[in-house]
Amino acid sequence: MNTFELPKKGDYPGFYESYISKIQYDNYPDLIKSQIKELKDLFSSKPEGWDSIAYEEGKWTPKEVLGHVIDTERIMTFRALCFARGEKKALPGFDQDPYVLNARFGQVPISNLLEDFEAQRKALLTLIRTLPDGVLDLVGNANGNPITPRALFWIIPGHFIHHLNIFKERY
């Protein structure tokens, strides 16, 4: 695998610092794998039906949050792939709310969502193993901001930690 240190400030827009700063572990593959187990353990520890109840009116259910995490990881991975391959065109942002609404995650069995999350994580790791040296720090533009593949890859586990903490605190 490529040298995979955390990104430096300036490799990503400042608003992603809230995710990057949550990461306390620098072994990327182990972190990605441990988060799969942590998520499965959390969901299996809850009573049946828990995943379909929002903690507050107007908030997403745990299924919807998980679907959002999966979608976000796919988008971040796609952006990283594009920039690692030398894409020079700016990539668009995305509005998470219509994604969740249109996905109808509430109708998807939780077992399918958990399987999907694990498959996405495994695909992420196999992609990273195939990247040639030097491409992690190429700069692309996503949502009007410069960002590197390295930063995008590290935002993924930080974003997960953000939502895992919400699961633990509010659900």
From TrEMBL:
Upper taxonomic lineage: Bacteria, Pseudomonadati, Bacteroidota, Cytophagia, Cytophagales
Domain DinB-like: 45-165
Sequence intervals crossing the membrane: none
Designated name of the protein: DinB family protein
Organism: Algoriphagus boseongensis
InterPro entries: DinB-like, DinB/YfiT-like
